[in-house]
Design brief:
The chain is an alpha/beta fold. The chain has 4 helices and 19 strands. A 7-stranded mixed beta sheet has the order 2-5-8-13-16-18-19.
């Protein structure tokens, strides 16, 4: 053994890595794509099958979670979702770093959660290097359709993200944000 870190180990540590050079990452991606093909082919009344497939795909998924297909992710094993998650059609979760979603979260259609990021240096990008930063979403959050959450952000409990927003910074508990980049509009209305 050379002692050299695998590309997967580099990815998990937040360091630059080459996903195309790691047989383990390629196998993990292949497994996720097979599960997603099955998941995305399910009928609306196949709730037990959908739940079983999500349990195979995700690191953790809480009771009452609903993710409407089609759904896409990189690996699945880097996603933890709490109970009563609702994610509408066409969501994309790029989970090269952990994505943690609290309880009672509502996610509109076509929401994109990105943990993957790329170097600013074009030579490093040409070399196929990337890195990843985790995304954390608190409980009781509502994310409007078409919103994009960028790598490394934390969304506080009870926050609301307006449709089409691009979230580039952390969002405090109970804050309503909207726009590109998303900016605070006001505090969310009380009840969680």
């Amino acid at each position: 053994m050379s002692g050299r870190a695998s590309e997967k180990a580099k990815m998990l540590s937040g360091a630059l890595y080459r996903p195309a050079d790691d047989p383990e990452l390629l196998a993990d991606e292949r497994r996720a794509q097979e599960l997603l093909r099955s998941y995305n082919a399910t009928a609306p009344d196949e709730t037990d099958r959908r739940t079983a497939l999500l349990r195979d795909l995700f690191a953790a998924i809480g009771e009452g979670a609903v993710i409407r297909p089609p759904f896409a992710c990189d690996y699945g094993w880097n996603i933890r979702a709490g109970r009563n998650l609702f994610a509408n059609f066409n969501c994309v979760f790029l989970d090269c770093a952990p994505i943690e979603i609290g309880d009672d979260v509502q996610i509109g259609p076509a929401v994109q959660i990105y943990t993957a990021t790329h170097p600013l240096d074009p030579a490093l990008r040409r070399a196929g290097l990337e890195s990843a930063l985790p995304v954390r979403i608190g409980s009781g959050v509502w994310i409007g359709g078409g919103a994009i959450l960028l790598p490394g952000i934390t969304v506080g409990d009870g926050a609301v993200i307006g449709a089409g927003s691009v979230v580039t910074r952390d969002i405090a508990d109970g804050t309503v944000v909207a726009g590109n980049p998303a900016k605070p509009i006001r505090a969310a209305d009380g009840g969680r």
